[in-house]
Amino acid sequence: MHVKIDTKERFHEFTVLEAELTANMAVELTTMLAGVLEMPIKNLILNLENTKAIDGKLAGAIVDLQTKFYDEHVSFVICGIQSHLEEQLDAAGQLELMNFTPTLSEAWDIVQMEEIERELLDGF
Fold first, then answer.
1. Domain ranges of the chain
2. Cys-Cys crosslink for 76: which of 64, 69, 89, 90, Cβ 3.0 to 4.6 Å?
3. What fold, for 3-121?
């Protein structure tokens, strides 16, 4: 599987370069993404701008992983979902379970806002 990784000050951006994500890619992708939780910078943006189709099992694994990130008090935002893929995920009932934005810029904003929110709520 081809993925471009870009590390920023507050997050890692994983851009999937595959047009189709199949079920047999689930373990490789989720293991790769889960590895971010072991790094000093734990926030993650998953950019799917190049992806046109996702197997339902893999989409479910991404939803589960996103939940794990938020349980660990770190951000996991998905961006760049193309309209056809958005329709596919919505029809499967998985889109409503994802924290996603249309653009990478908006994903950056969400990560920064969630970081501020965690800092403010840390004392409570």
1. 3-121
2. 69
3. Transcription Regulator spoIIAA (3.30.750)
